[in-house]
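Hi everyone, sorry if this is the wrong subforum. Our group has a chain we'd like a structural model of before ordering constructs, and none of us has done structure prediction before. Sequence below.
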Amino acid sequence: MIERTSENDVENGNVIPVTLDANFFFERAVRSLDRFQYDKALKNFRKAVEYEPENPVNHCNMAGILSEMGKYEASNDILTHVLEEVDPSMTECYFYMANNYANMESFEEAERSLITYLQEDANGEFIAESEELMELLQYELNRPAPLVRIRSREGVVEHDRARSLLEEGKFPQAVTLLEEIVQNIPDFLAAHNNLALAYFYMGRFAKAKECLGEVLAQDPGNLHALCNMAIFLQYAGDREQLAGLVRMLEATVPFHQEHVFKMATTMGILGKHRTAYGHFRRLLKDEEVGGDASLYHYCAAAASNSGLEREAVRCWQLAAKLDPESAVPRFFLSQLQLAQAEGRPLPPVSYNYQLPFQEQLKQWKNNMDSFSEEMRNNPLLRASFFWALRYGDASTKLQVTEALRWIGDDELSEVLKGVGEQEPLQESALLGLQRLIGGRPEESAIQNAVQESAVPGYKGLPEWKEDWQRVIDQTAAVMDRRYDALLKKDAELLWKQFISRLYPDVPLFRHTAGWCAALEYLTAKLHGYPLTYREAAQCYSVSVSMVSRYARRIHQVCGFPQDGAAGDILPPFTENI
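Answer:
Right subforum, don't worry. Here is the predicted structure as tokens:
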């Protein structure tokens, strides 16, 4: 309300001039709002707009009053005008419009406006309110919103999607998404950690360690990265580095629930079962997660592997009570009781909350429909197949590929195609995979090198002798934990090529260790590893000259291209050792 000044005041010189501008009407509108006089407030906000039509805040205030008065359509008309005519950068208008649409029960339009706000607003002023509104819309529409990104939380939605892909065993897709995230947001450490895990699951250990190195360079105390690094070091067989890291982790007492779980599972994987048991016990005391049957299984596994059988029995009994439909607790309880009756310890128990792989295969053979259903819906099961194909022994791989013929899941086929690209399998397993996924896996570096030489007359072998296989087995055993699966399989392939080209005039291999050392040396060199004759010779306890001589023989027979690189690969044994 405009106050009038008296004539006496003017005469006395006590005149307070009144300036009728946007601020004047804005303040009057606010006072009206404080008194819940919405009509007056609207009237004054309209005047403020008339004085400053280019100021989007005045328009938004008017839209807000209209919304408070239940005039949602009129409010949205003003907000649309702001976005189209006054200031398109006022992205919060989309949030206001979403609320208006929700109040009008136009939930589809509300979702569209809210998604636009989240995807275009850089500040995220209403991010908490948006989450609440999103929950309401999800409930009303009975589906999740198709939200691709939240600009103010760049990478978060994409990271959540990548984590889901990881949990579902879709590692190649997860890697693609995570690589994009870390490229756009280099300091997104959680994405780096998950990318390292994805690489690890796919057998790309060098890339996995590189990712963790980037995390630890930015945050040397990052617990997830330290735990993952310990697991990677154990796999690589780097005992010296692993010992120091494990000592540090064992002395760490994490506080947050997520960190306690990470530490517990890491200790279990590293074989520090007693430490893992202590952390799992702490988690079981947490009311928020203490009723989880799988957590009781983890604790039971840690207890059993630590020799605490009574505690293991107690945990599995509780797990069976919490999850009566699961066969897992009952299976391990029966196995433990059988072991106790026979007076022997129970073999190491896996922390995975599922039946041992061989046990599952036995059950599925009798019920293929159940297997297909389980395979499609259980990401953990798909992940276990992935691992079995990559790291299982020949017998396991054969059983897995046989089982996979029962289904034709496109998604699984994609994963298996990735396996084939990363690591050539045993011929029989590869045949099974090719039947399932069609086409041929990409050839490895060794295959390419051999084919470049294009020796005529190459053909398969009608027989395979024990002493030939002995070289493969011994090389793989010595290379284990120092090289990834791809190099080991390439060593095997190189040896088979060598034998094939000698056949039928294959000599008797008297010095198996020497041939193994030469095989490892050549394979490492072809992959660009800086291995010397001396290092290879020490690994197999043979002479340097023997490694050099045998490596040259393999190189000559396989007929690798004789370019300048050959001189680097096969120097005289007295040089560069």
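For your construct planning: Residues 446 and 490 are 6 Å apart (CA to CA). The longest helix spans residues 485-502.
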